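Question (not urgent): is this output format expected?
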Amino acid sequence: MCWNGTICRSYWWNGILTSLPPAWHARACLELMFRFHGMPFVDLAHLRKSDLKDGYLTLRRRKTGMPLSARVDGRAMQLLERYRNRDDTSPYLLCFLDGNLEGMAAYRDYQRILRLLNSRLRALALWKKVQGKVTSYSARHTWATVGRYCHIPIEVISEGLGHASVTTTEGYMKGFGNSRMDRANKVIMNYIFKGLSNAVDKW
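Got this back:
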């Protein structure tokens, strides 16, 4: 079935797509960002269908232009399939943004969706009695923090985050390749989602 972008986005944010409340769709969005190396929401929202190939997302960060490659594990693929943009005319992989907008109109559309996401995340945190502030940035901060706790080298974390500062860029000029980055992400995912504390020692 092919939906237009307006209907697709409405289904996502108003909880019509499934029996789950809207806050749980925001949770799925946060989990996707976390599984993709703490990907910023601006990059997740602007993912293009062409970015997904052979089990990897390959893109350039919108803020820094740095290349980013993230393996799509089984759970992430389930979420991508569940919330895939079904509008054949849209270039976007997920149905956050209106693919027909340009310039300031497109920017306002993004800002509106970002505000709505953060509102849903605050509601979810309140519902689950989570201490502290939960926003779209939480996935990025948590991925980096857990990575350090698991003794993953700071330069690997920097590459995974797509940082572009001189200090971090010099540290990984040659890159670590998908193999080592996949391993780092797996350690972090196992620690968070499976409670495997021994992952810290295995790095």
